[in-house]
Amino acid sequence: MTEPLIDILETPNPDAYMFRINEMLIPSGTHEFKQGDPIDHSPLASTILKIPSIELILIAPRFITVRKNEQAQWSGLKQRIYEALKMFLESGEMAVFEQLSNSDYESFSDFER
Fold first, then answer.
1. DSSP character at residue 99
2. Who contacts 30 (Cβ-Cβ below 8 Å, separation ≥6)?
3. For the chain, what are the domain ranges?
4. Looking at domain 1-71, which CATH architecture does it have?
């Protein structure tokens, strides 16, 4: 298995960094998770938000953006996020499991349910 390639990029916001990845995390769109949000359907958000001082993660097809709180310093945090992301990618887990609304479920046939 090829080791995942992760580039760490600055953003216009000094409290956020982008981690660009050479693998697909999700098929399309974005998913944003903040501290306190329900994250049981996103193993990647669960992993990253466990890191102290992290407030938010935005998951896109080939990158994540992570925002820390204003009081925290990036020294050490970037490496912790990088290592957590690398381990997550090597696990092969899904970044986000799509959630179905009740109306989606109701449109399924009895066989599909």
1. P
2. 58, 59, 60
3. 1-71
4. 2-Layer Sandwich (3.30)
